[in-house]
């Protein structure tokens, strides 16, 4: 029961902290007339993607060591382990977005009809996360230090993405660098579908989708290529 409660409680507590820091102290906003409630929901939409991203990658670094008893069994399909991490984080994020939609309905700010495309908009991000999860799981089996490196990079990517602040708050000559962050395009797309903010250009979405497919292929290929040595190093 506590585990199920934590699915709702963990993102809510994180939302309260970030809303206080960025909404009341730093007074960040995605619009001049935006109230605290709208700001919190907008912030929450980005934090959910960051949570999915961070949960999958941080757990991937140690997933082979944590389940070494399964990895050492020749009949066990080790590719299930990275996929289970992505699936679990996807469920948690899905519950979070359901909470956002319900909250918007209760606050008399129902989302537009475009919200039905929300699952489709998350597909490229899901492919990206899956590819990175397979890569990190493969490297993490051989190198213990991968976990520390991943934790540092996750914090860096969070603050170098429009999760905690709008892209319009940055100089125009800096904004295009944020597009290299795997969180940027999905966060902008989700907020556009939920809150009616500007959608990223089609070319950027297409480029991100192509990069996600290539990343998935490379990640799965690398994992399958090196998994034969997992049992030996574990």
TrEMBL record:
UniProt-annotated location(s): Cell inner membrane; Cell membrane
Transmembrane segments: 6-26, 38-61, 81-107, 114-143, 149-165, 205-224
Keywords, comma-separated and alphabetical: Capsule biogenesis/degradation, Cell membrane, Membrane, Polysaccharide transport, Sugar transport, Transmembrane, Transmembrane helix, Transport
Species for this entry: Pseudomonas triclosanedens
Protein name: Transport permease protein
PANTHER family: CAPSULE POLYSACCHARIDE EXPORT INNER-MEMBRANE PROTEIN CTRC, INNER MEMBRANE TRANSPORT PERMEASE
ABC transmembrane type-2 domain boundaries: 2-226
Location, primary (coarse class): membrane
Membrane topology: Multi-pass membrane protein
